[in-house]
Amino acid sequence: MTPLSVEPCTLALFGALGDLALRKLFPALYQLDRAGLLPADTRILGLARDGGEPASHLALIAEHLRRHVAERELEESVLQRFLARLDYLSMEFGRREDYAALADKAGQAERIVAFFATPASVYGAICAGLAEAGLAERTRVVLEKPIGHDLGSSREVNDAVARFFPEDRTYRIDHYLGKDTVQNLIALRFANSLFETQWNQNHISHVEITVAETVGIEGRWGYFDQAGQLRDMIQNHLLQLLCLIAMDPPSDLSADSIRDEKVKVLKALAPIAPEHLGQQLVRGQYVAGSILGRQVPGYLEEENSNTQSDTETFVALRAEICNWRWAGVPFYLRTGKRMPQKLSQIVIHFKAPPHYIFAPEQRQLIGNKLIIRLQPQEGISLLVMTKDQGLDKGMQLRSGPLQLNFSETYKSPRIPDAYERLLLEVMKGNQNLFVRKDEIEYAWKWCDQLIDGWQRVGAPPKPYAAGSWGPAASIALISRDGRSWYDDL
Ligand code: BG6
């Protein structure tokens, strides 16, 4: 495949004064500029409802850039070059007339990238406005998550967009796909023949995927309490990781080859019947506790909270993929807010050798593990069994890592933020790292049946202390299968 190049464009950023744009998108664009990746005639147009002087909004954006870009990466000359690309337009996203002004600003730009950092409820109106202003043909649209809160509402959003934009100009973001280490899963699996021969139910006993966060809900009660951890994290980030781990080798690296394989995994996920939910899924909600020596409030004591809420801030579940490769291999997924450390990690547990010849008390040591650390301290380690050294040790076994720590080994100055990669790929027109409509919908379908099931059962989430690894039931979930979570603490 010939590498795609970054096309000059006008980037129309809807929701330019919101948290995502100020904290993530403008800093990511600045970094692209700093790396020399933005063509000279790339323009950035911030769009928001706030009226007043554009200059004061641009000053606010500049102020946030200075706050969110690391000091050592703030280069005054780059900053000035970047700010010179920026413009601001106040508009009502639902008012069609306002799009004429946008068309004026876009001028003759051959390509427009319209990034929707707004609630999904206005995506349809924005698309209609862009089309009415005659901009649709040269525009790629970028949709932030969450796209809906269930299958029905996500279809409504997708359909509203599809009325004006074909799938090949629709880019749905799951920012985990922009993380370097997540892309490394593809390299690890398909550039190393070593693993592929082992990557199935004959050799793998089970897989763990953990995405733990120390943060709580960070003032996002309004959104989070309607969503909960299953919709916020499992439906997208964890299922995407699961797909990348479980999918069959694609025939090439094209967006559709990869996405076709991911969809097959989502389709093969076994539903969990309500009567089995008690054994296969744990919902938790944090209560006050301490993280890294700091006392933090419980979920129900967060600012603006509804003290009756039974929204989950933690989910652990046991999923199964019904296909030839994975039959009988449980995938244990776990994610929560207010965990003891920030950690995204996948652990592949290989089966023990078929015939055991060592001392019986060492048996539980046996079994290789491949630990893929996505963040922080990105790296890969393969736990292998060796013999302890020394004349007195006999055939005493020990497990040790073959280790690859990305930042130490490659001495890379910085790991780019996911949004840098994603913005770059949209400007190249590469959909590889974006989620296709059917992926989102199959993911919702699977999550919806879990949510329906637990609503039918009606059990409240189990409390866990902030700073712990979740409710005890999460340990029970995996130990019922004679296993435990791999916590490399
Ligand atoms: C977002 C969720 O998609 O991902 C947040 O809405 C979560 O609740 C965040 O905190 C985690 O992202 P990261 O990159 O910090 O792991």
TrEMBL record:
<dbReference type="GO" id="GO:0006006">
    <property type="term" value="P:glucose metabolic process"/>
</dbReference>
<feature type="binding site">
    <location>
        <position position="175"/>
    </location>
    <ligand>
        <name>substrate</name>
    </ligand>
</feature>
<dbReference type="InterPro" id="IPR022675">
    <property type="entry name" value="G6P_DH_C"/>
</dbReference>
<keyword id="KW-0313">Glucose metabolism</keyword>
<dbReference type="InterPro" id="IPR036291">
    <property type="entry name" value="NAD(P)-bd_dom_sf"/>
</dbReference>
<dbReference type="InterPro" id="IPR001282">
    <property type="entry name" value="G6P_DH"/>
</dbReference>
<feature type="active site" description="Proton acceptor">
    <location>
        <position position="237"/>
    </location>
</feature>
<feature type="binding site">
    <location>
        <position position="213"/>
    </location>
    <ligand>
        <name>substrate</name>
    </ligand>
</feature>
<feature type="binding site">
    <location>
        <position position="342"/>
    </location>
    <ligand>
        <name>substrate</name>
    </ligand>
</feature>
<protein>
    <recommendedName>
        <fullName>Glucose-6-phosphate 1-dehydrogenase</fullName>
        <ecNumber>1.1.1.49</ecNumber>
    </recommendedName>
</protein>
<dbReference type="GO" id="GO:0004345">
    <property type="term" value="F:glucose-6-phosphate dehydrogenase activity"/>
</dbReference>
<comment type="function">
    <text>Catalyzes the oxidation of glucose 6-phosphate to 6-phosphogluconolactone.</text>
</comment>
<dbReference type="Pfam" id="PF00479">
    <property type="entry name" value="G6PD_N"/>
</dbReference>
<feature type="binding site">
    <location>
        <begin position="92"/>
        <end position="93"/>
    </location>
    <ligand>
        <name>NADP(+)</name>
    </ligand>
</feature>
<dbReference type="GO" id="GO:0009051">
    <property type="term" value="P:pentose-phosphate shunt, oxidative branch"/>
</dbReference>
<feature type="domain" description="Glucose-6-phosphate dehydrogenase C-terminal">
    <location>
        <begin position="187"/>
        <end position="485"/>
    </location>
</feature>
<keyword id="KW-0119">Carbohydrate metabolism</keyword>
<dbReference type="GO" id="GO:0050661">
    <property type="term" value="F:NADP binding"/>
</dbReference>
<feature type="binding site">
    <location>
        <position position="337"/>
    </location>
    <ligand>
        <name>substrate</name>
    </ligand>
</feature>
<keyword id="KW-0560">Oxidoreductase</keyword>
<feature type="binding site">
    <location>
        <position position="49"/>
    </location>
    <ligand>
        <name>NADP(+)</name>
    </ligand>
</feature>
<dbReference type="InterPro" id="IPR022674">
    <property type="entry name" value="G6P_DH_NAD-bd"/>
</dbReference>
<comment type="pathway">
    <text>Carbohydrate degradation; pentose phosphate pathway; D-ribulose 5-phosphate from D-glucose 6-phosphate (oxidative stage): step 1/3.</text>
</comment>
<comment type="similarity">
    <text>Belongs to the glucose-6-phosphate dehydrogenase family.</text>
</comment>
<dbReference type="Pfam" id="PF02781">
    <property type="entry name" value="G6PD_C"/>
</dbReference>
<dbReference type="GO" id="GO:0005829">
    <property type="term" value="C:cytosol"/>
</dbReference>
<feature type="binding site">
    <location>
        <position position="145"/>
    </location>
    <ligand>
        <name>NADP(+)</name>
    </ligand>
</feature>
<feature type="domain" description="Glucose-6-phosphate dehydrogenase NAD-binding">
    <location>
        <begin position="13"/>
        <end position="184"/>
    </location>
</feature>
<keyword id="KW-0521">NADP</keyword>
<feature type="binding site">
    <location>
        <position position="232"/>
    </location>
    <ligand>
        <name>substrate</name>
    </ligand>
</feature>
<feature type="binding site">
    <location>
        <position position="179"/>
    </location>
    <ligand>
        <name>substrate</name>
    </ligand>
</feature>
